[in-house]
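Page header: ASSEMBLY MODEL / two components / 1094 residues total.
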Amino acid sequence: MKFMWHRLICKNRINLRLLDNICRSASLCAQNNKHETSSPHRLFLGASIATLLAYKLYDYKKNLAFAEQEASDTKAGVAREGLPYYSLQDVSQHCNKDTRIWVTYKEGVYDITDFVEGHPGGDQILLAAGSSVEPFWMLYAVHNNPHVWEILETLRIGNVTKEDAGKLTENMSDPYSTDPKRHPVLHPASVKPFNAETPPFLLVQQFITPNELFYVRNHLPVPKVDPETYELEIEIEGKNKTLSLTLDELKKLPRHTITATIMCAGNRRSEMTKVKPVKGLSWGAAAVGNATWTGVRLRDVLALAGVDEDAAFKHVQFEGLDFDPTGKTYGASIPFWKAASKRGDVILAFEMNGVPIPRDHGFPVRVIVPGTVGARNVKWLARIIVSEKESDSHWQQNDYKGFSPSTDWDTVDFTKSPAIQELPVISAICQPSEGQTVQTDDGHILVKGYAWSGGGQKIVRVDVTLDEGDTWHVANLDHQDTAEPPQHWSWTLWSARIPVKPGTKTVQIWAKAVDSCYNTQPESFKNIWNLRGVLSNAYHRVTVKLQ
Amino acid sequence: MKFMWHRLICKNRINLRLLDNICRSASLCAQNNKHETSSPHRLFLGASIATLLAYKLYDYKKNLAFAEQEASDTKAGVAREGLPYYSLQDVSQHCNKDTRIWVTYKEGVYDITDFVEGHPGGDQILLAAGSSVEPFWMLYAVHNNPHVWEILETLRIGNVTKEDAGKLTENMSDPYSTDPKRHPVLHPASVKPFNAETPPFLLVQQFITPNELFYVRNHLPVPKVDPETYELEIEIEGKNKTLSLTLDELKKLPRHTITATIMCAGNRRSEMTKVKPVKGLSWGAAAVGNATWTGVRLRDVLALAGVDEDAAFKHVQFEGLDFDPTGKTYGASIPFWKAASKRGDVILAFEMNGVPIPRDHGFPVRVIVPGTVGARNVKWLARIIVSEKESDSHWQQNDYKGFSPSTDWDTVDFTKSPAIQELPVISAICQPSEGQTVQTDDGHILVKGYAWSGGGQKIVRVDVTLDEGDTWHVANLDHQDTAEPPQHWSWTLWSARIPVKPGTKTVQIWAKAVDSCYNTQPESFKNIWNLRGVLSNAYHRVTVKLQ
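Prediction written out in full:
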């Protein structure tokens, strides 16, 4: 049988039995591994973290003197003369520290025992222990990189026997082969998984971002879901019964439409990383969009399941239909009050800007948690669990959290920071762009951008300066929703026409926003730097040439 | 009849008929004045604005060349030879621009027509047109200042006739004579009205601030209210019936206790004013306190009056029993959703830290609007109005709002900014204090402070640095309420023990807090400066000497 990722979705549940022997052998070995048992949720590292793997591996390489001598045109996984041959059975015996940890890549056999600690993805690498890294590298395509291959070859201990070579991967297809087509104007931050942002100047052309231009943030391959067989499950902790709703049943509930901005926690990360490198996709300022979402209120669905606003639960967990090679799905949770409150406006959306939600954005059903970081707006929604506990997913526990600027990867303790929910106030200049030559108009330049704040707060002012804050110009708030805080979910589009001194050749434009709590943006990235590069909401600074 | 301010409270309503002829003549003339009709709410300027009057008047003085020649030991209001004499009847004819605007002060007659525009309190001055300024100067004692007297004498045009001299004020007593006694350790920012803060080092000694040490923010004299005759009125716009509740009736409703921090919008103003002068009381970092408040839920009282959470009102207005010489009471409003929501936790409190609320804090009933600026926590509550509109009081409309750093008193338009409600994230270092000599302990110094955020957000981290942000130390959050956001109303007390390099003589300590929305403080006052000096939440910076 050909290994087809999308076939793994049986109705809307993942059928682990369909995972082929490649994945099973990998995960079984990992499950036996002592390293895993202590913190299973740490095993999985988001694709987001994986994207800076190349950087970290390069860093690691610098510490290996012998790597300096080999390198450059190393061909990874090619059979090398003079090295011993091992069968896949031999390799499978080496799946923990006591036996040493071996993996294969194509025809190569590698002892990664001493590398595990330096692996930027942490224990994640142990999923491949005693087996092939290839299914994982297909998922996190950042590994397909000469720097990574170089490091890998420094760990080389042998070759796979001719009989076994290729057997582990012969039925494996690209898990991304069924991803949807995307508009070519989207600017990718990574291709597998697909993550891409809108060109900033397009972002400020209209209050509602068209679906095709809306930024895409995928952690895993896009599942192919049959709306006819789709079912949403709702579990209440402590109750035996699970509520199941088909798409048709869901659509029969009272409909609710909201206009809400969704933003990635890593939006504007590329600016923070200039202070000191951070891990994560190198997003510009356009990992954000504003859309109209139609669906049913989550609180109505919870009420159907017998849970009302006054119930004593603390969290509502979500699981997506997207999953990794071990069958682990994307997951996240939000506080119960937000889920159950009428004022929270959380919906299970099946329409985006008046049409069925496109596959990249969660077809057929996505949770929209307005005012809350994109990561909790779970796409391809499979399951809702009302619980005393947060989701134990990697993305809730060990990602999407803020830390002090002095916390590094040696000192970080993810249990010490809360999962990001409502996002802080932010703004960005979308026009002109960095380095652009701008034609002045009667001694003025036109600056356009967006501003937004989480938690249903409204933008009350945007200030723009061309002289490092000696003079601030109050921008016009051109497009803004009429909803009042704390239910103001949309961004504000703004513009300012600012005088420049005659003869000025270059100006740096700064923008900062103030929200209805009068929270404002921090000035610089230095003092809000964090190792994951999230919450990058310092003043936006854009330098342009004048003509 | 001797003019006794506290006698004006008849039951809990202000009896305008008891206002004596001094005040009546002043207000009647003002009511006839064309300047007032357009914006009645602008007439009243808070004592808070009045406190920097001296500064502005001094500024005005600099523009009057002849003032430079007179000045210094001018005695204001003393009869001056060579000037014409006017009866009070003559003076009363001059109460608008057409007739020129005259006022008296003791035995002096002054033409203030050309000064009105430059008066920092705006149209407020017109209340005295055709009469004496003295009742107002008793209320806003900042006028009793040599700088003010100097300016006044530059406007001198005559003397009050011997027959009339003293008549206007002969029955006038000090409206503050019945204010309560205060603990001598409180540090006054103004005495009449009384405004004072706690010594900062005392603030961080305990999570709950003792009543006697709790900062006091009064806009007017403290009313003396008889709890036996006290009645609270609740009006619903569009309904003819008004609900009245005695204190006993109120206390029969279900009780609700919350622990909440109350903070003045002007807390830490003295730091902002160093960048460029602002108007307002010169508060340090201790115009804040944390207490336990017991009362009844406002939503329960609204329900008694027939208004539930889903009603279509927008605002809930409050009126206090404190009032100015024209009978205008202190007033403010909050959004209806906050007032009516269970999660809003708004209470009508009659106990503070387990005892009846002290007079300075609102005896017998004060609104506690947790997470919201102190100015909306109306004391000596007389009346609640459920409305489509915000309170039209000066303090809601023309005070307690934020503006861009480039907005000055010539360009400000108070209709353009929203009234401050929920406050932004803030922190302060309370120990050591600015300029203090600190004994190091095994090469470390101990820093203590508070942090808080409005809107029910919790403090998730406090960062402290001694090297301008090159190294940030994460403080211990020593005392924090267990309530979860968005119902976390109390401050967090924190401490940090930070190493100092041997031989260091002086360090500047910086502190900044991060709340559960991951909003953080702005770095410097320059870019958040505003003409009223509110929302002063930049990093707190304290320089100390080491021993």
